[in-house]
Amino acid sequence: MYQQQEQAPGGCRETLLLTRLAFQILLPGIVALAGVLLLVLFFFYALATYPPLALIPVGILAAALYGMYLYDKRRHRDQVDEMDDDIFGGLP
Q1: C-beta separation of 92 from 81 below 8 A
Q2: Model confidence pLDDT, tens digit, residues 22-53
Q3: 53 vs 55: CA distance, rounded Å
Q4: How many Cβ atoms are within 10 Å of 10's Cβ, its own excluded?
Q5: Measured between alpha carbons, how far apart are the two ends of the chain, in Å?
Q6: H-state helical runs in 1-91
Q7: Which one of 10, 29, 34, 57 is most buried, counting C-beta atoms within 10 A?
């Protein structure tokens, strides 16, 4: 009358896969937050000891932002090129 459906047993492999996926999503943000925190701490330490040294973390932050800009610009250009190639639906 009533039959139980067989369920796949949960295993460590599935748990490790989900954990790995969560870390792949969260880790870049956590690393970025830690990096910015270290830059801010170094900025205030350098400002307190010798004010011209405070330009070092400002330069590092500016270089990182410029690098992100170049990366995004290149990625956007590649996407636009792909769209231009397929504008007529792949017709020759």
Answers
A1: no
A2: 999 999 999 999 999 999 999 999 999 999 99
A3: 5
A4: 8
A5: 62
A6: 12-49, 55-85
A7: 57
Token look-up 């590092």 returns 60
Specify whether the CB–CB gap between 46 and 56 falls below 8 A.
yes
Q: How far apart are CA 47 and CA 35, in angstroms?
A: 18
Nearest to 43 by CA among 68, 60, 29: 60
pLDDT in tens, 79-88: 776 666 556 6
* Mean pLDDT of the region 4-19: 77
Report d(CA 88, CA 27) in Å as an integer: 40
Report how far apart, in Å, the C-alpha atoms of 43 and of each of 51, 58, 73 are: 9, 8, 29
Angle at Cα 60 formed by Cα 74 and Cα 29, nearest 5°?
65
What is the rounded distance in angstroms from the CA atom of residue 16 to the CA atom of residue 10?
11
